[in-house]
Design brief:
Chain lengths: 282, 62
């Protein structure tokens, strides 16, 4: 198995995973979406709210604000020693106290822990008019996307198979009909030969409009161009909501998969009563 | 108020709203503004394109 990064920064990553099965690619995608924990506001104590929105709408908007998460500091409440009471190890507390007229932004949330600040400071929470006031206390806890999307560390996160373009030069007359049809601009004609534009192959969405265009030219039963999907190579796109860098999301998802399979081996060993051979294990 | 995130993909789009509104009211083409603000997918773009602010209309009826 091999990973080659096309792009990697804090907000987004694009990489090609080779030599994997569709099952593994989907496992990785699902782990990144729903098994990597982050912080999100869960409980809100509202002392005063005379704005135009209801308390629950306000609390919902607060919940959706991504929060920078350092998982070496925070643990899920169920694993905390405080017994689900809420302590600085499992809960991050914020206070918000604003009087109108002005717009309340996410940067107005004052965190107890300066490390767990909102990932974006310009998120408008509510517009307050003359005489309106909001006073509240919010508690953020660690959980996973499995429970609610607000704990998802990723926004867009998915993959597609690597496209394979085969051109049968014996029957292709370079008429260019497929080029006009291609919505991603993958094909071109050079020296009267149809070919893939350099570095645009990965943009192909496997829509196969080129195959249909080729057939509509009256070439016969078989099109001169074939689009196939490489079942062992995947182009992944992962975007972070800002709660943690994309690289950390990928690493934590892979650690999760590793831990899950190790746990399975342990359970099987327990049931069968026979130690699994190290060689078989790895 | 503009939703905090895109309904479909979950990208945080609300910080772009005030800039978008300002530039749209100045007569700029929405396509150019959205490209400039880094909203690539059509799910995120429709969030701003189709949004109507009603907070000010609601305010007198408290």
């Amino acid at each position: 198995m091999d990973i080659a990064f096309i792009k990697l920064d804090d907000k987004a990553a694009k990489f090609v995973l080779s030599g994997a099965t569709p099952a593994f690619a989907n496992t990785l995608r699902r782990a990144m979406i729903s098994e990597v924990p982050t912080l999100a506001i869960e409980d809100v104590r509202i002392y005063d709210n005379t704005s135009v929105v209801f308390d629950e709408i306000l609390a919902h908007r607060l919940g959706l604000i991504p929060i920078r998460t350092d998982l070496s500091v925070y643990v899920p409440r169920s694993e905390c020693t405080c017994g689900e009471a809420g302590c600085p190890i499992c809960t991050s507390t914020y206070t918000l106290s604003v009087e109108g007229p002005r717009t309340v932004y996410s940067r107005d949330l004052i965190p107890q822990d300066p490390g767990a600040v909102p990932a974006e400071e310009d998120i408008p929470i509510i517009e307050l008019f003359e005489g309106q006031k909001i006073v509240l206390e919010a508690h953020a806890i660690v959980s996973t996307g499995r429970e609610h999307v607000k704990w998802q560390p990723t926004t867009a996160c998915g993959y597609k198979n690597y496209p394979v373009v085969r051109i049968n030069e014996a029957i292709c007359d370079a008429c260019g009909m497929c080029i006009e049809e291609c919505p991603r601009g993958v094909l071109q004609v050079e020296d009267r030969r149809l070919q893939v534009v350099e570095e645009r192959l990965e943009l192909c969405s496997l829509c196969r409009l080129c195959e249909r265009a080729c057939l509509s030219g009256g070439i016969g039963e078989e099109p001169a161009i074939h689009i196939d999907a490489d079942e062992s190579r995947f182009i992944f796109v992962v975007e972070s909501d800002g709660s943690m860098p994309v690289q950390e999301i990928i690493e934590r998802a892979l650690h999760y998969i590793q831990k899950k399979s190790d746990d399975l081996v342990e359970v099987l060993t327990e049931i069968s009563g026979v130690a699994v051979d190290e060689e078989i294990r790895y | 108020m503009i939703p905090v995130r895109c309904f479909t993909c979950g990208k945080v789009i609300s910080p772009a709203w005030e800039k978008y509104k300002e530039r749209r009211d100045a007569g700029e083409d929405p396509k150019e503004i959205l490209d400039d603000l880094g909203l690539e997918r059509y799910c995120c773009r429709r969030m701003l394109l189709t949004h109507k602010e009603i907070v000010e209309d609601l305010n007198p009826y408290q």
